[in-house]
Amino acid sequence: MELTPISERFILHWGEMGTRLGVNRTVAQIHALLAARRRLQLLMADMAALALAAGRSTLPRRYWRCARRWEWLGYPAFASMIAVYFLMVTKPTLAGP
């Protein structure tokens, strides 16, 4: 996957910011990569704009398939963010001496 220079700088900066907040750099960079790559959302926006431009009052079936996929992708993302928040707040000792 090729990244634009702006996306690459964003991901590196997000990783640096994450380490300053106590988050693993790799985890923060993966989060930034997912935030930078939101193709499904952009695809849905394009389909809605095309339907509006064509004067249709309903969205195509493909839009609703993407919407279901978008919703299902949101559940693990939400659970992951809750886990990250829990780890950041409680700072448990996962591996001790």
Write up this protein.
The mean pLDDT is 84. The protein has four helices and no strands. The N and C termini lie far apart (40 Å). The protein has 97 residues and is mostly helical. The protein is elongated, with a radius of gyration of 18 Å. Helix 1 packs antiparallel against helix 2. The chain has helices at residues 5-20, 25-36, 39-53, 61-90. The protein folds into two domains: 1-37; 39-89.
Please supply descriptive tags for the structure shown above.
mainly alpha, 97 residues, single chain, 2 domains
The CA-CA distance between the termini, in Å, is 40 Å
> What is the SS-derived class?
mainly alpha
Number of strands: 0
Assembly state (oligomeric): single chain
Mean pLDDT: 84
Q: What's the shape?
A: elongated
Number of spatially distinct domains: 2
Major sheet size, sense and barrel closure: none
Sheet-strand content, in percent, reads: under 5%
Question: Helix and strand string, N-terminal first?
Answer: HHHH
- Using only C-alpha atoms, the radius of gyration works out to 18 Å
Q: Unreliable segments (pLDDT under 50, ≥5 consecutive)? A: none
Helix content: over 70%
DSSP helical segment count: 4
